[in-house]
Structure formats: structure tokens, C-alpha cells
Design brief:
The longest helix is centred in the first third of the chain and has 13 residues. It is built from nine helices and 18 strands. Helix 3 crosses helix 8 and helix 5 runs parallel beside helix 6. The strands form five sheets. The protein has an eight-stranded mixed sheet with strand order 4-1-5-7-8-9-12-13, with helices on both faces. Strands 15-16-17-18 form a four-stranded parallel sheet, with helices on both faces. Helix 6 links the parallel strand 16 and strand 17. The chain is an alpha/beta fold. The chain is globular and about 65 Å long. It has two domains: 206 residues, L-asparaginase, N-terminal domain (Rossmann fold, 3-Layer(aba) Sandwich); 116 residues, Rossmann fold (3-Layer(aba) Sandwich).
Length: 350
């Protein structure tokens, strides 16, 4: 893409397969070194951009990712926000969708691209998918429209030729290069011979408001996946946590649960105690419709709030974000029913 300006891009390496480089003498995989990284990706020199890199003091395996590291990423972006046109975060794939979701809420009214990418194979291996993912992520982070505005000023995941909204994305493949999918929202861009942007789908910041980073998260919640034959004593034990503030229910179909009086009574007790209960579906595609069947309506009457078509990753991150800011229960329920970062599609009749 021909550009008449010299874009500045900051790469943030948090950990993950893409930054692992094979030692030619020992064959062992070693952690990210930016100069060595440039050696394995000489194509970086062909960009007429200023490309700098920072990294976590200790790279984090994505399985060990947690809110304190999201805060660190936000700090890195906030501290460098005025100096760079876009940001590329290199991250392990296992929890990438959680991180993308969290950052979409924590980087409120972001006006610059934050592209998260990684790979299934290390960057130094011959068949790596890391090179293409990295190079295209950088190009997208630097891309501007005819008015000089960033093409994609939001938090996204780029993987295998698709740019996906971060808080709509789920990892769906542990082996293939097509590791991520956005089931309920279309891709924001497709990379082929050219990068085709779907401008009508891309979120834009409110020009009357400033970029606002957030650093508060509260992880006093749990995910409860419903299944046939679940036992009352086990569910009671799981839910009997004195500091519990929220429960993400993964229900059947369009938001249904077994018609067991003990279960609905237990949820009602939790809701009356101030625990936020969010109803999300176990299905990959579709949305929760709590008025459709009696089993969903009972959840509504028990105090559960509609999770709509939110991914599990986005629901968890949004709850951590809202709980961390100490909002009242009523405010949290209101915001869970509000699209604040492009994370849900709300239909009035659901």
C-alpha cells in the first residue's frame, strides 16, 4: 500500500509461539530478541515505517495470561500513544481472544489501531505462518484512508488473512493456521492481493471525547457450563463462594436451562445477594433469546441478564472490567445490556 507519510509502529511482544526462535546450534527454542527477529523477517526493511519494539521483562506463555498483564499492555500503549500511529501486539494464541476482548474495554475510545497477532509455528521455521501474520498486521496498523485517518482504529485480531474485531473472536483450531473465527460479526478486512477493508463495519472513536485507558479489573467470577445430569450438591459447592461477584452461565441453544426448581432457586438467591448472572449460549453461532422458551424465561425471572451474541471471552472480560470499576449492580446490569465496544448485537425483541 503506497503511503505518503512515514508511519510509526510499536510492536509489543508479550510471549507466544511467534517470538520463539530456534537456536541453530542446539535446536532449542529461545525467547524473542528483536534484532534476531529482524534477521528472520528481512521483509521488515521494505516497509518505509519507523518500527520499534518493546517486550515484557519476562515473556508470558498465553496459558498464564491474566488481568495484571492486560494492565501492563494498556500501560505500554498509553505511555506511547502520542508517539506511534499504531500498535501490534504479539501474543500466544490460547488466550488471545481474552486479551483482545479485555483491551477493547480497557482502551476506551481508542483512535489508533491495536492489532493482536501470533502464529501456530515459530517465526524461524520454514512453514511458519508468523511472517505473513506479522507483516500484514504491521501494514494494517499503519494504513490510513484518504483523509489521513487510521483505517481500523480499534482492537483487532489478525490471523490467516482475516482481520477480526477482537471482542468478537474465538480460537477454534489448535492445529490449523485458521485458528480464529468471528461467528456473529463479519471480518473487518480480508488480506489477499490487496487488503480489502469493510469500512461500514469498522468502529470509529467519538471525536468529542479523548482516548481513556483503564487499569481496574476484578476477577471474582466464574463460568458455569450447564450439562444434562448436573448434580445439585456439586453446583452448590461451585457457587458457594463468599467473594463471588458474577457468574457466566453457558446455557443450551438460545439460552435455555434444565427446569430444575433447585437450580432456579439457587440463581435467584445469588441474584438477590448481588451476584451478576449473565446468560450466554454454548452455541458458536446465534444469540440468547430469553423470551423464546419457558426455560429461558425462567432464567430471566431468576435474575439472569441477557448475554446476547457475546462470546464467552468477551463476556468474561467485560464483567471483569465493569466489576473492577465498582459500579452498582444496577449499573452493571444496564451496561451488560449495552453495546459499549462493538461486543454484542442487541435486538429489541430478544
Amino acid at each position: 500500500m503506497i503511503q505518503d507519510y512515514k508511519a510509526s509502529i510499536l510492536i509489543i511482544y508479550t510471549g507466544g509461539t511467534i517470538g520463539m526462535i530456534e537456536n541453530p546450534e542446539t535446536g532449542a527454542l529461545e525467547n524473542f530478541d528483536w534484532e534476531q527477529f529482524r534477521h528472520y523477517v528481512p521483509e521488515l526493511k521494505r516497509f518505509d515505517y519507523q518500527i520499534d519494539a518493546v517486550m515484557f521483562e519476562r515473556p508470558i506463555d498465553s496459558s498464564d495470561m491474566e488481568p495484571k498483564y492486560w494492565v501492563k499492555m494498556v500501560e505500554m500503549i498509553s505511555d506511547n500513544y502520542e508517539q506511534y500511529d499504531g500498535f501490534v501486539i504479539l501474543h500466544g494464541t490460547d488466550t488471545m481472544a481474552f486479551t483482545a476482548s479485555a483491551l477493547s474495554f480497557m482502551l476506551e475510545n481508542i483512535g489508533k489501531p491495536v492489532i493482536i497477532t501470533g502464529s501456530q509455528l515459530p517465526i524461524g521455521q520454514l512453514r511458519t505462518d508468523g511472517k505473513e501474520n506479522l507483516l500484514t498486521s504491521i501494514e494494517i496498523a499503519a494504513a490510513r484512508n484518504h483523509a489521513g485517518e487510521p483505517m481500523v482504529p480499534e482492537v483487532c485480531i489478525f490471523f490467516e488473512n482475516q482481520l477480526l474485531r477482537g471482542n468478537r473472536t474465538t480460537k477454534i483450531n489448535a492445529e490449523g493456521f485458521n485458528a480464529f473465527r468471528s461467528y456473529n460479526y463479519p471480518a473487518l478486512a480480508h488480506a489477499g492481493i490487496h487488503i480489502k477493508y469493510e469500512n461500514h463495519l469498522i468502529r470509529r472513536p467519538d471525536p468529542t471525547r479523548r482516548f481513556q485507558p483503564h487499569y481496574l479489573m476484578d476477577n471474582n467470577l466464574l463460568i458455569l457450563t450447564l450439562f444434562p445430569g448436573m448434580r445439585q450438591e456439586i453446583i452448590d459447592t461451585i457457587l458457594d463462594q463468599k467473594d463471588l461477584k458474577a457468574v457466566v452461565l453457558k446455557t443450551f441453544g438460545s439460552g435455555n436451562a434444565p427446569q430444575k426448581p433447585w437450580f432456579f432457586n439457587r440463581l435467584k438467591e445469588l441474584a438477590e445477594r448481588g451476584v451478576i448472572i449473565v446468560n450466554t449460549t454454548q452455541c458458536s453461532t446465534g444469540t440468547v433469546e430469553m423470551h423464546r422458551y419457558e426455560t429461558g424465561l425462567q432464567l430471566l425471572q431468576a435474575g439472569a441478564v441477557n448475554g446476547y451474541d457475546s462470546t464467552m471471552e468477551s463476556t468474561v472480560a467485560k464483567l471483569m472490567f465493569l466489576l473492577g470499576h465498582g459500579y452498582s449492580n444496577q449499573k452493571i446490569l444496564e451496561l451488560m445490556n449495552t453495546d459499549i465496544a462493538g461486543e454484542i448485537t442487541i435486538e429489541e425483541d430478544l
